[in-house]
Amino acid sequence: xxxxxxxxxxxxxxxxxxxxxxxxxxxxxxxxxxxxxxxxxxxxxxxxxxxxxxxxxxxxxxxxxxxxxxxxxxxxxxxxxxxxxxxxxxxxxxxxxxxxxxxxxxxxxxxxxxxxxxxxxxxxxxxxxxxxxxxxxxxxx
Length: 141
Description:
mainly alpha
């Protein structure tokens, strides 16, 4: 695989991050989040929304960093390689949580949500794999 090919695959990964942010913005309505949170104390409700927003900002940051620095990641620059390892660990952990921790079955009420859930897990796999590849092969292509 050429460095330019890996760079392109990393830029696709960057776009997937932005897609996950967009999907995340649709999630509260899909799971009726406000109704679930309404019974919680105000502090916990606000804490949840702050965490939710921070996660979205982190994902947007991952995407922006990947898009802007894809060439350096593909080239195996040391700091970029470290970033790829971090991103790979993050997405691997996120996939494990999606599969073994979250029970989303009650929310997969139609084919659209089921398809979206499966697509999201495929994106997690892609992200973990592409960052692992960049960390392992970057600069050696």
